[in-house]
Amino acid sequence: MAKPLKILAIQFKSLGDTVLVIPALEAIRQHFPDCTLHAFVSEAAAPLLRDQPCLTRVWSIARVHGRARFKQNWPVIRALRAERFDRSVDFGGNDRGAILSLLCGARQRLGVERPGFLGRRLCFNQFVQPLPIKQPEAWRSMAILSPWGITPRVPREIRIHADPALDAAAAALLPEEAVVCHIGAGMSRKQWPVSHWTAFCKMAVAANYRLVFTPGANSREQALTAELKARVPEVAVLPETTNLPQFLAVLKRARALVTSDTGPMHFAAGLGVPVVALFGPSNLAQWGPVTENCRVLMGDLCHCDRNLHDCQSANPCMAGISPEKVLENLQNILNPA
After folding, report:
1. All domains in the chain, ordered by first residue
2. Which pTM was predicted?
3. Is the dihedral of CA 321, 270, 143, 118 positive or negative?
4. How many angstroms separate the CA atoms of 302 and 192, rounded?
C-alpha cells in the first residue's frame, strides 16, 4: 500500500486570510483522508487554527512586516525540513510564502504563478494560474488545489474555536448582552468615520444596547478609539493588552459585532456571532463574511484608487453609510421578523 502523504499548507498573510483558508484545509483532508496535514502560519495567526480537526500540527514563526528574520526563524524551518513533506502548497501568494515553500523542502511545491522577486518561479515546481478576484476568497484558496484534483466550492460557513480555558477571564472583560464594535481597520480607507461611530454610539445607547469597543492593534486604530472616547467619555473600551486568544474568547460572548472589513469580521463569523459589516472600497464578493447570520452595508461609489492605503476622495465611500442604517441593521439581526 502507498504511504500516506505528508502535506504542508503555508499561509503568511493577514489574520482574516488565515480564517478564509480553513475550508481549503478541510478540502485537503477530505480528498486525502489518511494524510498528515501540517499548517505553517505566523505566530499571530496560529490561535485561529486551534482545535481544527483537519490538522495534524500547526507551526508558526514571527511575521514582521518588511523583515525576513531568517536567522531567528531557521530552527523552525530546519525542523520543518526534517519532516520531509511530500507536498506543500502556498496559499498566500506573496514572496515570503514562496521563499518559505522552497526552504521547507517538500518534494512537490504548489503555488500561484504570478510576478514577484527574481527567482520566485524556482521556489515552486507545480503551478496554478492566477485566480479570478470576483470569487470568494475561500473558493479561491480551494481553487489553488485544483492540480491535486480538488474541486473548489463556496462554503456556507467557517468554524474557528475559542479556548474554553479563557471563558472566565472573558466574562470579566465583557458583560452579558454586549454588542462589540471594532472601530479600526488595517487600511484607513476601510474605516468608518469617527463622527459616524459617535452618532451610532449615542443612538444605540438610547435604544438600550450595551456597546463595548475594541481598541485595535496599531497606534492609528488606538488613536481613533481615543478620539471616540473624547467625544463620548462614557463609552466602554476593552483593555489594549487583550491578545488574540483572549479576544476570541471575548468575542464569542458578544451579542453581535459591528465592524468594517477587518479580521475580527471573519473571527465573529467563524465563532457564530451575528455580524453587521460595513463595506466600502473592498470587493464584497471576494472578502464578504462567510456566514448567513450577517447584514452587509455598502458605502457610496468611490472614485479613489483602491490600491492606496488612504482614501484620497473628497467624499470617501465609507462616509455614505449612515449611523441610522447601521442601527437599523443591528436591530434587524438581533430581532429578526
Report:
1. 6-148 (3.40.50.2000), 166-334 (3.40.50.2000)
2. 0.92
3. positive
4. 14
